[in-house]
Structures are given as C-alpha cells and as structure tokens.
C-alpha cells in the first residue's frame, strides 16, 4: 500500500459521546488528548454536571445537545463537525472508563492512508467483573452481523472504533441510540467497506459501581427492531449502493465436479449452534407457509441471502411435508374463521372448496409457522451444543 506523505495524526479526531459520566469522562478525555491533538466531547444533555465547565481553559472541544438524542446521534453530530473541519478519520471511545486511551496507539497505524475500513476494538474478555449480559450481547451481535452481511468479527458491540469520515457520512443511517452501532457495521459492509479488528483491553468495575445509560428493555427493543429492518432490507433482491469498489469473490466452479467436496463445504457453512438453529428455524417457517411448489426455491433464496446453512434449511422442510402440517394449519384457520373445527374432511370439502381451504391454510400457518420455527430452532441449538461439548471433551481427553 502506498504511503501518503500528507498523513498525520492531525487528520484523526477522537470523539467521546457522554451522558451522565461525570466521574470518568475527564480522565478518559485527557487520556485521549495525550495521544491525539483533536479531541471532541459530545454532551448528550447530561444532567449530572456541566460538561463544558469540566474542560474550560483547555483545547478540548465540547459539542452540546439541548436534549438527549442518543449515542448514535451524538456520534453523527461529532462526525459532521469532524468532516467540516477537515478530519479524515474519527475514533470513538466510551466515556465510562471501560476503554483505555492508551489503546489509541493500536488504531493509529492502521489508519495510514486507508479510508476503506472500519476498525473495531475487540475487547479481551479475560478480566474480572465481565457481566454475563455483555458476553451474551457480544455473541448475539456477532451472529446477526454474520446473517446480515456474511462477515464474521469477534466483537460487534465494542464502542471503541475508527471510522473513515467521508464514507460514514454517506451511509443512510436510521438508528439514533445504541442501535446505531449495530446498523453502521452492516451498512458499511454493504457499501463495500472492510471491517478490521484490533485487540484492546477493557475494564469493568464492581457491579455496584457501574453507571450505564443502557436501558435493557428499551434499548434491546430498539436493537431488535434494527436487526429486523436490516434483515428485511438484505432479503430484497436489490443491490446495495457501493461507496468502495468491492473485490468480487471468485466462484469456485471446480467444486461442481467434486460433489463430496461441495457437500463438505456446504455442511461447514455457518455451522455454529446458533447458525444451525437459525437455518432450521428459517427452513421450518417457510415450509409451513402455503408456498405450493416453491418452498424449496424460497428457502434456498432466503438461506443464501442470509448466509445460512443451506443443507440444514433445505432438509428441515421435509418435517413439514403434507398432509400432517397443512392439515393442522387448515384446522386452525377454519376454527379462526368459523369458531368450530372442520370435522368433515373429504374430497369435496378439500378440493371442491379449495379457495376456502387455502385461506384457512394461510391463516393457520401464520400461527403455526413461528411456533414451529421457534421449537425447531431450540431443539437444533440444544442438540448442536450438546454435540459440540462432547467433541470438545473428547478432544481434551
């Protein structure tokens, strides 16, 4: 890669969004200032102290929201300021003291003349007081990024990140709170940007000392809605707008001449317990719907778009073959329409009244499909986990 002689740390801005972190924000900001000349604090309407007063007399810039708009909006406010003042890169770091400013040294070399990547600080979860919710949330976020983009990284939830300012401004972002950090990675990949990771240290205080603006119900709901939006968009057969020319993946057609190798490749595709469970759930869901004669095509399309295990998704549909599952859906749909069960099942009531049966099949399937998908996913996940543990124990012996 060619070196750009004009590159210097003056092109890199450090951004710290803050909301009610008076006990930690100053140390974080001053720590970052010791590594970078340009440091911006975005006060998202903190009520615990006057953030501007904390940095009066210093060269730290403070941008202020008059009302709380969320972490995502705070980052976008800073981004517009950075770009307007000639910044090329923006590194975000949390104000709660979880991250160490010294790790900025790991990001800076990776930004040298590279405006095509988002760099994420991968937290080392080997210290004390790591909350189980953080471990689960990390796996949850990693899984959905894989589904939405096909890209796997170790820590999608880390707030310690470096963004190329110009490209980030061009992404069509919808999230304004913690859902922003899930959305921006997916849209960056869709736009042709690369995701890179660098290992960073992390600190968690004792549970009674933690101060967090994350609201479990509201923010998890927002994040779930965002993943639903992203999955829905990715299922559409329309290409994403590219900001960076992406390297085309070379399709290895030689595998077509080696069915065994092709099968092994397909079996390994997204074969984690979570990936297999999601594949089974998707295959079951669409197999229950009255997609007469096109079940396989629909399941193959969805599995391909969402980077799921196609072998699992396509084969699990056989559990829903007629007549048992369609009959359950028709009976349930008939009861929903008429308030009683269909007891007279014969050629006339099925084929002679086919339009009515199809409507009832559809109605019933809207109830049966999600329930069956959930149960199938749980069973497959539990089974895959059990086998994985057995294999790990066997290898350890």
**SS elements, strand count:** 7
What name is given to the CATH topology of the largest domain? Spore Coat Polysaccharide Biosynthesis Protein SpsA, Chain A
Radius of gyration: 25 Å
Identify the CATH architecture of the largest domain: Alpha-Beta Complex
The low-confidence runs, each spanning 5 or more residues with pLDDT under 50, are 1-6
The run of helices and strands is EHEHEHEHEHEHHEHHHHHHHH
The shape, in one word, is elongated
Percentage of helical residues? 40-55%
Mean pLDDT: 86
What structural class should be given to the helix and strand makeup? alpha/beta
Sketch the major β-sheet. 7 strands, mixed
**Biggest sheet, strands in spatial order?**
3-2-1-4-6-5-7
Number of domains: 2
Give the oligomeric state: single chain
Strand content: 5-15%
Report what the structure shows:
- The chain has 397 residues and is α/β, with parallel strands linked by helices.
- It has 2 domains: 227 residues, Spore Coat Polysaccharide Biosynthesis Protein SpsA, Chain A; 142 residues, no CATH class.
- Helices cover 49% and strands 10% of the residues.
- It has 15 helices and 7 strands.
- It has a 7-stranded mixed beta sheet with strand order 3-2-1-4-6-5-7, sandwiched between helices.
- Helix 1 links the parallel strand 1 and strand 2.
- Helix 10 packs antiparallel against helix 11.
- The protein starts with 11 loop residues before the first strand and ends with a helix.
